[in-house]
Queue: 2 jobs
Job 1
Amino acid sequence: MKNDNNSSKSLETIDIRVYYEDTDAGRVVYYANYLKFAERGRTEYLRVHNIENSKLAEETGVFVVVRHLEVDYRAAARLDDLLTVETRVVDLGKASFTMQQDIKRGATLLVTLKVVLACMGQDGRAARMPQALRTILEG
Amino acid sequence: MKNDNNSSKSLETIDIRVYYEDTDAGRVVYYANYLKFAERGRTEYLRVHNIENSKLAEETGVFVVVRHLEVDYRAAARLDDLLTVETRVVDLGKASFTMQQDIKRGATLLVTLKVVLACMGQDGRAARMPQALRTILEG
Amino acid sequence: MKNDNNSSKSLETIDIRVYYEDTDAGRVVYYANYLKFAERGRTEYLRVHNIENSKLAEETGVFVVVRHLEVDYRAAARLDDLLTVETRVVDLGKASFTMQQDIKRGATLLVTLKVVLACMGQDGRAARMPQALRTILEG
Amino acid sequence: MKNDNNSSKSLETIDIRVYYEDTDAGRVVYYANYLKFAERGRTEYLRVHNIENSKLAEETGVFVVVRHLEVDYRAAARLDDLLTVETRVVDLGKASFTMQQDIKRGATLLVTLKVVLACMGQDGRAARMPQALRTILEG
């Protein structure tokens, strides 16, 4: 089921500063670290709507886990860069959803991610999405 | 162009122990850290054939960078697990190549990655693959 | 030589949110990651005075490196915590300086660091502190 | 109480390869990452004596946590370096112990750590050291 909300409504943006910890000997951000930036973006997407990772599991018994990931690396970020991470929901199912995330430096698109997330119970099996989470993802 | 070598020839395997540094508060390996394991696997794939990351760039002026990534997360690794990373070349072009990487615990497949890597010159533009690298990737 | 400025003048504070990337399977922040938080604090201490890591080296040929570190771990930070890092100069020499850094959650002191930093030239040897840096550290 | 065993008895050594993930834009290993290397060394020190982090807590209810840390950075490790981490017990108390760790490249000493570790119960308070752990640390 496609999320038909217009994107301006469901788009959340955070700023990220690049520190030494994020870079590697190639003098650019290490390729795995864009996934950290993306996870911060997804976390703040929920937090801005009053859902915290640490409480969602406690209150509903449901964890949100990454099931599938596609990443395009177009250009590299460097030390001291100020980046933005844009996060939006592009697909919403019964037990899973898909987020599109764009990492930019100013207007320049550096890295894009498509992230498929699934709801999982404490037994490790697929679980129905909690209504509180669904409401937020529907925008 | 497909690499038609049989896979037993081009497959390289490394062992990886999971330490606290790799895990997160969900008590499993943090999703970005499988990319570190995969990068160790690709590095050792080259090292076993006498190519080191730090020397390839110096000697040929060509860097190998990740352009595209697809990851499937099937099951989670945990603290103290002993994992294996299997790395093989599945496609080989003029300036890029694709590696398939399987991260396993024993016979259990945990995470699979398809990684598209490209050769880049010091000017940041696509570069022809150095012959020494091509020879190795052809198996 | 002691820095005799009163501490309210030279103290800089940043906020840090704890994400999954920072935690480990003990459900607390991994012990090495407080050093990342501290390095962000030192970087922002300089940035607020218009010195960026990436430009200092370019413009003066001098790098600032950590020579010695003492860390006291008093209490643990957890997922979703909002922390503050307080950074101040406590000692200033000809080619090195010492920073005291306190990592807190609200009024609770979690981790304290004493960090000795040294100026190093491109030859890897001790170098005189650039005047622009000295002026800032003197508060 | 000093551990009076001769050091050849209690010394454990592991090898560590430096990958891109460990380095930063200064083209050396990032300062916090030596703490990861040290933690791998401490973990293998116990594992070689059949104690695993993940089982110690389960079986005894006691966690081992870092309380205090002193690090001297003498020289930098670089991409593709092969390092050794030497770990030995230098002090052993009722609820805490101290390890000395030397990180070397060949005969060259790069980084030394003195790490004070404490036993902690599930209530977060100091706990008596489990006998199985004490026996190992006494060498």
Job 2
Amino acid sequence: MKVCRRVNFNAAHRLYRKDWSDEKNDAIFGKCNNPNFHGHNYVMEVWIEGDIDPETGYVIDLKILKDIIKEEIVERFDHKNLNLDCSEFENLIPTAENIILVSWNLLRSRLDEKFKLKLKLWETENNIFEYEGL
Amino acid sequence: MKVCRRVNFNAAHRLYRKDWSDEKNDAIFGKCNNPNFHGHNYVMEVWIEGDIDPETGYVIDLKILKDIIKEEIVERFDHKNLNLDCSEFENLIPTAENIILVSWNLLRSRLDEKFKLKLKLWETENNIFEYEGL
Amino acid sequence: MKVCRRVNFNAAHRLYRKDWSDEKNDAIFGKCNNPNFHGHNYVMEVWIEGDIDPETGYVIDLKILKDIIKEEIVERFDHKNLNLDCSEFENLIPTAENIILVSWNLLRSRLDEKFKLKLKLWETENNIFEYEGL
Amino acid sequence: MKVCRRVNFNAAHRLYRKDWSDEKNDAIFGKCNNPNFHGHNYVMEVWIEGDIDPETGYVIDLKILKDIIKEEIVERFDHKNLNLDCSEFENLIPTAENIILVSWNLLRSRLDEKFKLKLKLWETENNIFEYEGL
Amino acid sequence: MKVCRRVNFNAAHRLYRKDWSDEKNDAIFGKCNNPNFHGHNYVMEVWIEGDIDPETGYVIDLKILKDIIKEEIVERFDHKNLNLDCSEFENLIPTAENIILVSWNLLRSRLDEKFKLKLKLWETENNIFEYEGL
Amino acid sequence: MKVCRRVNFNAAHRLYRKDWSDEKNDAIFGKCNNPNFHGHNYVMEVWIEGDIDPETGYVIDLKILKDIIKEEIVERFDHKNLNLDCSEFENLIPTAENIILVSWNLLRSRLDEKFKLKLKLWETENNIFEYEGL
């Protein structure tokens, strides 16, 4: 049985590598390399897989999951500049792939080992990402 | 090849256990334990996995699947009180997890064994559930 | 300039008149007359029309509007039985038309007279309602 | 890690077999057998599974994926009559199942072997399809 | 008070004028001038403005409105070729503007004069139309 | 008759006044005053009101409207920092109200006087704005 809580956060970011020339950054990252940043409304679905607790009829209380997501993801990334405000991206390009990877590790460490974890992330309505660990 | 039909039903429910005190029910189920019930617009996706029939180009005729879903799910749960009107939940808390489990068993018994069955259920736009059997 | 905050609440209700026979209630209200209630995820948009404050660039701070909506609408109706828990519907059928009318009056009394107020309410994804006063 | 690009195309089609009588075509395909065709706004999600490139933080540059989808899917099917304009459906009924199968083969041939490919197709908001190869 | 019922229909069409050259039709209507037609999933919102009936709490019974829309719009246009199957467009280009105009006249003739009527039509998720009469 | 084209742009911004203290900026603009910026996926609907051209069945060719919006809005604001990259906001706080006001003036100057113009802007799925001139 899989259960999911959906959340939103709004953040600025820039895609570039300090060790590349401006030309190479522009060639690879295009307009995402704007030195003054741009931003997105990110939508994240947090999916937990586990057994139904026969006492409560819940896999996990979604109110508790919501609080964990708020602490680990929303308070960390919402209304932030991912490159400048978030130490997770000090040496990691904040592509959607890396945002979902970082988020998965943050949430994984807060959840009981009996649960499987999968994340889905919308960066725009046309660019979507999914990760469930290795 | 997987094919899906999406349906809606609107129902009232209450989450609580008769064998628990009011305090424990409130602690675990919070405002979902309102004795006078509350309700949701449920959205369900019914996913069938099978081979394409080379004669028709269909896995299953979705008009037929729609009729099965109408008989088993919509007529049973739509505009109903899940706790009071539906015998399936006489001794089972109508959490979304249990609704999807009951629905999966109802639909499974109506479908050819050659098909795999997966359900996805939205209780709200932020709380989502998925089940594909054991 | 018009600005809007969107909110959700989930409630149970029943459409019927005590002064009508069961037959007449069924004829007029159909399955919405289930004596055990059914329910919906209501979505409400609260639209305020006014001038931009040249100092802040806001018509109204949407965080403040959000708090007013929470106090007047969400805390009053969310996870409630509109017929049994809400005195507003003691002598008023909780159709979507009456829910939006009651909500408009509640919000109107909390807003500065300089603002116009319009509400939009989704009872289901196919049944939608709008009211902006007389 | 899975990444996805979403696209749209609008097309006309008719479901029928030349080797069946009109009666049989009507019995199986119903109103989808209108000899003058009908049409849909198709929405397709193209999902690629692969490893994150540690240099760019991308699985695949979605701008490049977008261009491949445009060439193989959008330019081929958008504003077309699938039965009359598209050689892929000269001897294949353009059901959504066959559209997704044809599209999967077209995209598969353009992508590096290291990537897995999955497609999701909405024919209407209630009829959805998914295919990831054999 | 305004109330709305939302419906869908799927149709094929072609935009062109018989009295124009192919070159002019292509210049004005572009790929919408495909002689073999293309198609869309149309979504229509039918908005009625009137007073709340104090007896029922309804402006109009949306089940009745739904039946009128089914008879006048859905059965007429769904799974049809607007150019070939619908006499309304025998001498009228089936642009979304003309579809909404024709639909408004059809529905207007079925509704009590005390109601105002407004239609909203999505031809794609990016092209939207609205008409409320002269 | 009203016709609409919907577009998207993704941008970073910060809400603050240089002539206010940090304390006052925080009190009024909260987390929107992050000195390192945050961002949004803006969705804009551009509505034109006019008569149907009897020759084409169009109010305005939406392909032409799309090009105007691309030049005036998307190329100006997409993947930009509204505060640092856009001269329009050099002395104007980039609230959604001011973004829609600036956009309306830019589009108004490009459209024939016979058309009325209305804009609708989503900053998030819960914060929405509308402007149609004075």
